[in-house]
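Renewal narrative, Specific Aim 1. Our central claim is that a sequence can be written position by position from structural information alone. The example that follows is taken directly from our test logs and has not been curated for this report. It begins with the structure tokens describing the chain, in the order in which they were read.
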């Protein structure tokens, strides 16, 4: 459906969205999201390069979201690291196919379109708008007494 890189990016962004604008280091995000730190560093570079997150160096540095979670779609996050693949014409370059895709590539393109629609319509904030018991990633810091 989506790549592991895209899932890791979503985990990191959802975690950042839950931090109320406080900068978070790669180590902290890695621990909370269970993404290997080395891999996460590369994911965060892509997110920063594509203006999904801000990166601040220094003692009180870390990553924050550029766009409020209410305005940031899952699709924007995914496309920043590993865009959904679509087929405008035959990927095999068969001359007589052109934009008329074969049934296989039409089905794959249709699936890509559905992914774009689904992830484009869902904001990062909507992923956090659940009871604390159903908190995304299951491992966010959430004390038993805070669960409702």
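The sequence written for that structure reads:
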């Amino acid at each position: 459906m989506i790549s592991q890189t895209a899932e890791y990016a979503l985990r990191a962004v959802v975690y950042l969205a839950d931090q109320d604008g406080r900068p978070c280091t790669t180590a902290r995000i890695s621990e909370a999201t269970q993404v290997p730190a080395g891999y996460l560093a590369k994911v965060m570079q892509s997110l920063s390069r594509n203006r999904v997150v801000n990166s601040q160096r220094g003692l009180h540095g870390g990553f924050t979201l550029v766009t409020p979670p209410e305005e940031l779609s899952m699709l924007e996050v995914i496309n920043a690291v590993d865009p959904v693949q679509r087929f405008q014409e035959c990927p095999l370059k068969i001359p007589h196919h052109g934009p008329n895709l074969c049934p296989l590539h039409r089905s794959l393109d249709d699936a890509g379109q559905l992914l774009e629609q689904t992830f484009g319509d869902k904001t990062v904030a909507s992923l956090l708008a659940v009871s604390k018991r159903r908190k995304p990633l299951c491992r966010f810091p959430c004390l038993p007494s805070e669960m409702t």
